[in-house]
Protein backbone atom coordinates (compact mmCIF):
# COMPACT_ATOMS: atom_id res chain seq x y z
CA UNK A 1 0.00 0.00 0.00
CA UNK A 2 2.74 2.40 0.94
CA UNK A 3 4.66 1.36 -2.15
CA UNK A 4 1.74 2.26 -4.42
CA UNK A 5 1.36 5.66 -2.69
CA UNK A 6 5.03 6.44 -3.15
CA UNK A 7 4.90 5.46 -6.80
CA UNK A 8 1.94 7.73 -7.41
CA UNK A 9 3.74 10.59 -5.67
CA UNK A 10 6.79 10.17 -7.88
CA UNK A 11 4.67 10.01 -11.05
CA UNK A 12 2.78 13.18 -10.03
CA UNK A 13 6.02 15.08 -9.33
CA UNK A 14 7.49 14.06 -12.69
CA UNK A 15 4.28 15.14 -14.43
CA UNK A 16 4.36 18.62 -12.82
CA UNK A 17 7.98 19.10 -13.80
CA UNK A 18 7.43 18.04 -17.40
CA UNK A 19 4.14 19.94 -17.82
CA UNK A 20 4.36 22.90 -20.27
CA UNK A 21 4.49 26.36 -18.71
CA UNK A 22 1.53 28.72 -19.23
CA UNK A 23 1.68 30.96 -22.30
CA UNK A 24 1.84 34.11 -20.22
CA UNK A 25 4.73 33.07 -17.96
CA UNK A 26 7.49 35.66 -17.58
CA UNK A 27 11.17 34.88 -17.70
CA UNK A 28 12.31 36.56 -14.50
CA UNK A 29 15.90 36.65 -15.77
CA UNK A 30 14.81 39.16 -18.42
CA UNK A 31 13.20 41.54 -15.93
CA UNK A 32 15.20 44.65 -14.95
CA UNK A 33 16.70 44.42 -11.50
CA UNK A 34 18.78 47.62 -11.30
CA UNK A 35 16.40 50.10 -9.66
CA UNK A 36 19.06 52.65 -8.80
CA UNK A 37 18.38 56.20 -10.13
CA UNK A 38 20.90 55.74 -12.94
CA UNK A 39 19.56 52.29 -13.77
CA UNK A 40 15.99 53.60 -13.86
CA UNK A 41 17.09 56.42 -16.14
CA UNK A 42 18.75 54.01 -18.55
CA UNK A 43 15.70 51.77 -18.57
CA UNK A 44 13.18 54.57 -19.03
CA UNK A 45 11.30 55.41 -22.19
CA UNK A 46 12.85 58.03 -24.49
CA UNK A 47 10.16 60.59 -23.58
CA UNK A 48 10.77 60.09 -19.85
CA UNK A 49 14.51 60.37 -20.48
CA UNK A 50 14.03 63.71 -22.23
CA UNK A 51 11.92 64.95 -19.30
CA UNK A 52 14.57 63.85 -16.79
CA UNK A 53 17.40 65.48 -18.74
CA UNK A 54 15.41 68.71 -19.08
CA UNK A 55 14.73 68.81 -15.34
CA UNK A 56 18.40 68.15 -14.58
CA UNK A 57 19.40 71.05 -16.85
CA UNK A 58 16.81 73.28 -15.16
CA UNK A 59 18.26 72.40 -11.77
CA UNK A 60 21.76 73.23 -13.02
CA UNK A 61 20.52 76.59 -14.34
CA UNK A 62 18.93 77.33 -10.96
CA UNK A 63 22.13 76.84 -9.01
CA UNK A 64 24.17 78.73 -11.61
CA UNK A 65 21.86 81.76 -11.35
CA UNK A 66 22.01 81.57 -7.55
CA UNK A 67 25.82 81.60 -7.51
CA UNK A 68 26.16 84.37 -10.11
CA UNK A 69 23.50 86.63 -8.58
CA UNK A 70 24.71 86.12 -5.03
CA UNK A 71 28.23 87.21 -5.97
CA UNK A 72 26.90 90.15 -7.99
CA UNK A 73 24.56 91.34 -5.24
CA UNK A 74 27.26 91.18 -2.56
CA UNK A 75 29.79 93.04 -4.68
CA UNK A 76 27.41 95.78 -5.82
CA UNK A 77 25.78 96.20 -2.41
CA UNK A 78 29.17 96.62 -0.73
CA UNK A 79 30.22 99.24 -3.29
CA UNK A 80 26.89 101.06 -2.96
CA UNK A 81 27.28 101.26 0.82
CA UNK A 82 30.81 102.65 0.49
CA UNK A 83 29.81 105.34 -2.02
CA UNK A 84 26.72 106.32 -0.03
CA UNK A 85 28.76 106.77 3.13
CA UNK A 86 31.17 108.97 1.21
CA UNK A 87 28.26 111.21 0.21
CA UNK A 88 27.30 111.74 3.84
CA UNK A 89 30.32 113.96 4.47
CA UNK A 90 30.82 117.56 3.45
CA UNK A 91 31.24 116.88 -0.23
CA UNK A 92 30.16 118.91 -3.20
CA UNK A 93 28.50 117.43 -6.24
CA UNK A 94 31.45 118.20 -8.53
CA UNK A 95 33.84 116.54 -6.09
CA UNK A 96 31.64 113.44 -5.86
CA UNK A 97 31.47 113.20 -9.66
CA UNK A 98 35.25 113.54 -9.90
CA UNK A 99 35.78 110.72 -7.40
CA UNK A 100 33.60 108.30 -9.35
CA UNK A 101 35.60 108.88 -12.54
CA UNK A 102 34.58 106.44 -15.25
CA UNK A 103 33.00 103.91 -12.87
CA UNK A 104 29.84 102.18 -14.05
CA UNK A 105 28.33 100.95 -10.80
CA UNK A 106 24.83 102.05 -9.83
CA UNK A 107 25.71 104.80 -7.31
CA UNK A 108 28.37 106.16 -9.66
CA UNK A 109 25.74 106.36 -12.38
CA UNK A 110 23.46 108.26 -10.00
CA UNK A 111 26.22 110.73 -9.14
CA UNK A 112 27.25 111.24 -12.75
CA UNK A 113 23.65 111.74 -13.86
CA UNK A 114 23.10 114.30 -11.12
CA UNK A 115 26.32 116.14 -12.02
CA UNK A 116 25.37 116.07 -15.71
CA UNK A 117 22.04 117.74 -15.01
CA UNK A 118 23.74 120.38 -12.86
CA UNK A 119 26.18 121.04 -15.71
CA UNK A 120 23.36 121.34 -18.26
CA UNK A 121 21.59 123.78 -15.94
CA UNK A 122 24.54 126.16 -16.11
CA UNK A 123 25.30 125.92 -12.42
CA UNK A 124 21.94 127.44 -11.45
CA UNK A 125 20.77 125.65 -8.31
CA UNK A 126 17.03 126.20 -7.86
CA UNK A 127 13.79 124.26 -7.43
CA UNK A 128 13.78 123.38 -11.11
CA UNK A 129 17.18 121.73 -10.81
CA UNK A 130 16.03 119.65 -7.86
CA UNK A 131 13.00 118.42 -9.80
CA UNK A 132 15.08 117.54 -12.84
CA UNK A 133 17.67 115.78 -10.71
CA UNK A 134 14.92 113.79 -8.99
CA UNK A 135 13.59 112.66 -12.38
CA UNK A 136 17.04 111.63 -13.55
CA UNK A 137 17.74 109.72 -10.33
CA UNK A 138 14.41 107.91 -10.60
CA UNK A 139 15.19 106.77 -14.14
CA UNK A 140 18.69 105.61 -13.22
CA UNK A 141 17.36 103.71 -10.21
CA UNK A 142 14.79 101.93 -12.40
CA UNK A 143 17.46 101.00 -14.97
CA UNK A 144 19.84 99.68 -12.33
CA UNK A 145 17.03 97.70 -10.68
CA UNK A 146 16.16 96.04 -13.98
CA UNK A 147 19.82 95.22 -14.53
CA UNK A 148 20.31 93.57 -11.15
CA UNK A 149 17.06 91.57 -11.52
CA UNK A 150 18.07 90.21 -14.93
CA UNK A 151 18.14 86.41 -14.94
CA UNK A 152 15.90 85.87 -11.91
CA UNK A 153 12.77 85.44 -14.01
CA UNK A 154 13.99 82.04 -15.18
CA UNK A 155 13.88 80.84 -11.56
CA UNK A 156 10.19 81.75 -11.31
CA UNK A 157 9.54 79.89 -14.56
CA UNK A 158 11.37 76.77 -13.37
CA UNK A 159 9.63 76.84 -10.00
CA UNK A 160 6.21 77.10 -11.65
CA UNK A 161 6.63 74.58 -14.48
CA UNK A 162 9.07 71.92 -13.21
CA UNK A 163 6.47 70.00 -11.12
CA UNK A 164 4.13 69.78 -14.10
CA UNK A 165 6.93 68.66 -16.41
CA UNK A 166 7.82 65.95 -13.90
CA UNK A 167 4.14 64.99 -13.68
CA UNK A 168 4.03 64.62 -17.45
CA UNK A 169 6.96 62.20 -17.26
CA UNK A 170 5.17 60.29 -14.51
CA UNK A 171 1.96 59.97 -16.52
CA UNK A 172 3.91 58.81 -19.57
CA UNK A 173 5.84 56.22 -17.54
CA UNK A 174 2.71 54.82 -15.88
CA UNK A 175 1.04 54.64 -19.29
CA UNK A 176 3.95 52.54 -20.53
CA UNK A 177 3.61 50.30 -17.46
CA UNK A 178 -0.04 49.60 -18.31
CA UNK A 179 0.98 48.85 -21.89
CA UNK A 180 3.54 46.36 -20.52
CA UNK A 181 0.84 44.72 -18.40
CA UNK A 182 -1.38 44.39 -21.45
CA UNK A 183 1.38 42.85 -23.57
CA UNK A 184 2.61 40.42 -20.94
CA UNK A 185 -0.91 39.39 -19.77
CA UNK A 186 0.18 39.52 -16.14
CA UNK A 187 -0.12 41.89 -13.22
CA UNK A 188 3.03 40.63 -11.53
CA UNK A 189 4.76 43.27 -9.41
CA UNK A 190 8.04 42.35 -11.08
CA UNK A 191 6.60 43.59 -14.37
CA UNK A 192 4.86 46.70 -13.08
CA UNK A 193 7.41 47.94 -10.51
CA UNK A 194 10.24 49.11 -12.84
CA UNK A 195 7.96 51.28 -14.99
CA UNK A 196 6.26 52.83 -11.97
CA UNK A 197 9.62 53.48 -10.32
CA UNK A 198 10.88 55.24 -13.45
CA UNK A 199 7.71 57.32 -13.57
CA UNK A 200 8.02 58.37 -9.95
CA UNK A 201 11.66 59.29 -10.52
CA UNK A 202 10.47 61.91 -13.03
CA UNK A 203 8.19 63.41 -10.38
CA UNK A 204 11.04 63.43 -7.86
CA UNK A 205 13.30 65.25 -10.32
CA UNK A 206 10.55 67.79 -10.95
CA UNK A 207 10.38 68.57 -7.24
CA UNK A 208 14.17 68.64 -6.96
CA UNK A 209 14.24 71.28 -9.69
CA UNK A 210 11.22 73.29 -8.50
CA UNK A 211 11.73 73.59 -4.73
CA UNK A 212 15.25 75.11 -4.82
CA UNK A 213 14.18 77.41 -7.67
CA UNK A 214 11.33 78.86 -5.59
CA UNK A 215 13.47 79.22 -2.45
CA UNK A 216 16.36 80.82 -4.34
CA UNK A 217 14.02 83.15 -6.24
CA UNK A 218 12.49 84.44 -2.99
CA UNK A 219 15.96 84.84 -1.48
CA UNK A 220 17.18 86.84 -4.48
CA UNK A 221 14.04 88.99 -4.49
CA UNK A 222 14.78 90.00 -0.90
CA UNK A 223 18.41 90.73 -1.80
CA UNK A 224 17.35 92.84 -4.78
CA UNK A 225 14.88 94.75 -2.60
CA UNK A 226 17.70 95.55 -0.16
CA UNK A 227 19.88 96.68 -3.06
CA UNK A 228 17.12 98.97 -4.31
CA UNK A 229 16.85 100.43 -0.81
CA UNK A 230 20.57 101.21 -0.94
CA UNK A 231 20.08 103.02 -4.25
CA UNK A 232 17.22 104.94 -2.67
CA UNK A 233 19.51 106.01 0.15
CA UNK A 234 22.14 107.16 -2.34
CA UNK A 235 19.53 109.17 -4.27
CA UNK A 236 18.35 110.77 -1.03
CA UNK A 237 21.93 111.74 -0.15
CA UNK A 238 22.36 113.32 -3.59
CA UNK A 239 19.13 115.29 -3.20
CA UNK A 240 20.33 116.48 0.20
CA UNK A 241 23.65 117.47 -1.35
CA UNK A 242 21.92 119.51 -4.06
CA UNK A 243 19.65 121.10 -1.47
CA UNK A 244 22.60 122.07 0.73
CA UNK A 245 24.40 123.64 -2.23
CA UNK A 246 21.27 125.64 -3.03
CA UNK A 247 20.88 126.83 0.56
CA UNK A 248 24.57 127.78 0.76
CA UNK A 249 24.28 129.73 -2.48
CA UNK A 250 21.20 131.60 -1.25
CA UNK A 251 22.92 132.27 2.04
CA UNK A 252 25.96 133.71 0.30
CA UNK A 253 23.76 135.91 -1.90
CA UNK A 254 21.89 137.17 1.16
CA UNK A 255 25.13 138.02 2.95
CA UNK A 256 26.41 139.80 -0.14
CA UNK A 257 23.22 141.88 -0.33
CA UNK A 258 23.73 143.03 3.25
From TrEMBL:
Principal place of residence: membrane
NCBIfam families: exbB
Protein's cellular compartments: Cell inner membrane; Membrane
Keyword Hydrolase listed: no
Annotated MotA/TolQ/ExbB proton channel domain residues: 120-226
Family according to the record: Belongs to the exbB/tolQ family.
Membrane topology classification: Multi-pass membrane protein
Name of the protein: Biopolymer transport protein ExbB
Function: Involved in the TonB-dependent energy-dependent transport of various receptor-bound substrates. Protects ExbD from proteolytic degradation and functionally stabilizes TonB.
Complex and partners: The accessory proteins ExbB and ExbD seem to form a complex with TonB.
Coiled coil spans: none
Pfam families: MotA_ExbB
UniProt entry keywords in alphabetical sequence: Cell inner membrane, Cell membrane, Membrane, Protein transport, Transmembrane, Transmembrane helix, Transport
TM spans (from-to): 41-68, 154-175, 195-218
Amino acid sequence: MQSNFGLRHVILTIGLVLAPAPAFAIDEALLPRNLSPWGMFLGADIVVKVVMVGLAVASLVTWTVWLAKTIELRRKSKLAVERTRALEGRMKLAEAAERTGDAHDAVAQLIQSCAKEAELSGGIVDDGLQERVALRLERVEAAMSRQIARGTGVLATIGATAPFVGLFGTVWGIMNSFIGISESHTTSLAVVAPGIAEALLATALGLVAAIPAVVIYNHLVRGIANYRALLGDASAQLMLLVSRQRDNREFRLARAAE
